[in-house]
TrEMBL record:
Name of this protein: GNAT family N-acetyltransferase
PANTHER family: AMINOALKYLPHOSPHONATE N-ACETYLTRANSFERASE-RELATED-RELATED
Record domain N-acetyltransferase: where: 4-141
PROSITE patterns per UniProt: GNAT
Tree of life domain: Bacteria
The keyword Membrane belongs to this UniProt entry's keyword annotation: no
CDD domains: NAT_SF
The UniProt record lists the keyword Acyltransferase: yes
Signal peptide: none
Organism: Stutzerimonas tarimensis
Keywords tagged on the record: Acyltransferase, Transferase
One Pfam assignment: Acetyltransf_10
Length: 141
């Protein structure tokens, strides 16, 4: 595997890659209904793409209110620190924008991943799109 690179993406120019990854992970693998996956917030979000070479393998988004979401890595690249690279880029951009507290809604199975990145659970478990989630926050130092 070559080195993973993460860059800020453009919702319009990079739309095919952003949609391909999110459709595969959320709609196909996790059976999230398409009308829940796609929302009006995508146009105002800062999007991120992770690449191996020139192939996009992961994505995430940062909303203007410091909410991080739609973190997705294609199955064949999971466990290879792509998610860490994505989240480090998102948190760095949030901090650059003076968003000192970031938050996200995490699937329960992923809470340990986010805890290693400095997030902490701040809610009880709840269902979103039929999947158990919790709210998590992180405060910049």
């Amino acid at each position: 595997m070559s080195e993973i690179e993460v860059r800020i993406a453009d919702w319009h120019d990079d739309n095919a890659d952003l949609r391909r990854i999110r459709e595969q992970v959320f709609i196909v693998e996790q059976a999230v209904p398409p009308d829940l996956e796609w929302d009006a917030e995508d146009t105002d979000a800062v999007h991120f793409l992770a690449f191996e070479g020139d192939y996009a393998i992961g994505t995430a988004r940062l909303l203007p209110d410091a909410h991080i979401g739609r973190v997705a890595v294609l199955r064949d690249w999971r466990g290879m620190h792509v998610g860490v690279a994505l989240m480090n880029a998102v948190v760095a951009e949030a901090e650059r924008r003076h968003m000192t507290e970031q938050y996200l809604t995490a699937q329960v199975h992923a809470t340990r991943f986010y805890e290693r990145l400095g997030f902490r659970v701040v809610s009880e478990e709840f269902l979103e799109a039929g999947i158990p989630h919790v709210e998590m926050t992180r405060t910049s130092r």
